[in-house]
Amino acid sequence: MNKRRFIKLHVGILTATLLSLGGISSVVVAKNKPIYEKHVFRTPAYGVANFHTSYSGKTHKITFSGTASGFRDLVIKYDGKVVKEFKLKKADRHFKTTIPFKGYKTFKIHDGNGHMLKDISAAQYATKKPRINSYYQTNEHLKIELSGKKGDIVTIWKNGKAVKRKRITDKFGTIITVPNTLFEDNSKITVTRHTIGKKTSKGVKINKSKDNSISIDK
């Protein structure tokens, strides 16, 4: 066989795909045809994958974690204000960061160039408000029937201080009872709900009218 000629194979068409840096190299060998290579370059993924959010009621901090792809700089904003900036040691790596905050505003995560990567509203990190099915008042007590996720904690607050807690045992209806004396001094009374790993919900206000009857905001 003439060494100056291209190597020829007479065994039919054979395609072998080899991984290479920056893309895929496909080596195609055809009958009576010279060997040639075709490079197909892949564009790397850009964004945040495996993203998770958790909240600690003990520290009042939220934790974000995920895998960054295609960038190193992260900027986190809460209610439009920068609350944290940091740089990853290299692109395409896992990150985890914890931030203290108050309120129920929206977080936004950007890269170093201002491109938004994630939008985290209160619906994603906070518990939904307690769902009031019904309530009725006797001469001594106010009974409230609530529904929600089984295992959630419902709390009655008086002027910001917890006075009664109860776990939801039936998602279709759990009753919590409080004495009418709770409302005698026109205190601010609210009901909240808490799911483990999320922030406690906003409060639902319980109102006392002039005739001493009770109403609950929806």
What percent strand? over 45%
The domain count comes to 3
Mean pLDDT score: 81
CATH topology-level fold name of the largest domain: Immunoglobulin-like
CATH hierarchy: architecture of the largest domain: Sandwich
Largest sheet: 5 strands, antiparallel
**Helix content range of the residues, please?**
under 10%
Distance between the termini: 90 Å
Would you identify the regions where 5 or more consecutive residues have pLDDT less than 50?
A: 3-31, 34-44
Number of helices: 1
Q: At the first level of CATH, what is the class of the largest domain?
A: Mainly Beta
Radius of gyration: 30 Å
Count the strands?
Answer: 18
Which outline best applies? elongated
SSE order, as H and E? EEEEEEEEEEHEEEEEEEE
- Helical/strand content category: mainly beta
Arrangement of strands in the largest sheet: 14-13-16-17-18
InterPro entries: NusG_2_sf (IPR038690)
3D architecture notes:
The chain is an all-beta fold and 218 residues long. The protein folds into 3 domains: 1-42, no CATH class; 47-124, Sandwich (Immunoglobulin-like), CATH 2.60.40; 131-210, Immunoglobulin-like (Sandwich), CATH 2.60.40.3580. Helices cover 2% and strands 53% of the residues. It has 1 helix and 18 strands. It has one helix at residues 122-125; strands at residues 14-20, 23-29, 36-41, 47-56, 61-69, 73-78, 81-87, 94-100, 107-111, 116-120, 131-137, 141-147, 153-158, 161-167, 174-179, 189-194, 204-208, 214-216. The model is unreliable at 3-31 and 34-44 (pLDDT under 50).
Describe the protein's topology.
Elements: E1 14-20, E2 23-29, E3 36-41, E4 47-56, E5 61-69, E6 73-78, E7 81-87, E8 94-100, E9 107-111, E10 116-120, H1 122-125, E11 131-137, E12 141-147, E13 153-158, E14 161-167, E15 174-179, E16 189-194, E17 204-208, E18 214-216
Antiparallel strand pairs: 1-2, 2-3, 4-5, 5-8, 6-7, 6-9, 9-10, 11-12, 12-15, 13-14, 13-16, 16-17, 17-18
